[in-house]
Amino acid sequence: MSEDNKRLAKRWFEEVWNKGRRDAIREMMSADCVIHDGETSLTGIPAFQAYFDRLQAAFSDTRFQFEQVMAEGDLVCLRWSVTIRHVGDGLGIPPTGKELRSTGMSMVRIVDGKFVEGWQNWDMLGLMEQIHASGRAALYMAAG
Regarding beta strands 29-37 and 114-122, do their DSSP bridges make them parallel or antiparallel, or are they unpaired? Predict the structure, then answer.
């Protein structure tokens, strides 16, 4: 089961983020899934799709790479790095065209082949510093 869950978690990043397939969210996420991102939590597919849309409006050329993937029981933990290009104002910041790099960790709980809960933490401040936005103001806009 752990190996299947690791494959699903990797597939999520490949399909949803690297390929930008919005439909993959519904395929792999339970209807009442809760995603925790710092102090913010998103509940359900529509809420996550709005988050996805906002990031898609800000970034292109997304490429996640996995540094480490571990699984135990119904939990999968991924340590990752990402490169993205800042091409739109989806975060309320004019596009710079810059290629940006960030790192983060995500943990997901999988039941019956779908994400039911997730926790993620990534270096959004470092990302905003690369864009040259005001750190605190940009973080509030991103959490929007």
Answer: parallel
CATH of the domain at 82: 3.10.450.50
Q: Which amino acid is at 55?
A: L
CB 126 within 8 A of CB 137: no
**pTM of the predicted protein model:** 0.85
Structural domain count of the chain? 1
Tokens of 59: 């970034």
Amino acid identity of residue 110, one-letter, is I
Q: Which pLDDT does position 134 carry in this prediction?
A: 47
pLDDT of residue 124: 86
Domain that holds residue 103: 2-143
pLDDT tens for residues 5-50?
999 999 999 999 999 999 999 999 999 999 999 889 999 999 999 9
Angle at 123 between CA 122 and CA 124, to 5 degrees: 100
CA distance 91 to 143: 9
Per-residue pLDDT at 136: 45
Q: Which helix (H) or strand (E) holds 31?
A: strand 29-37
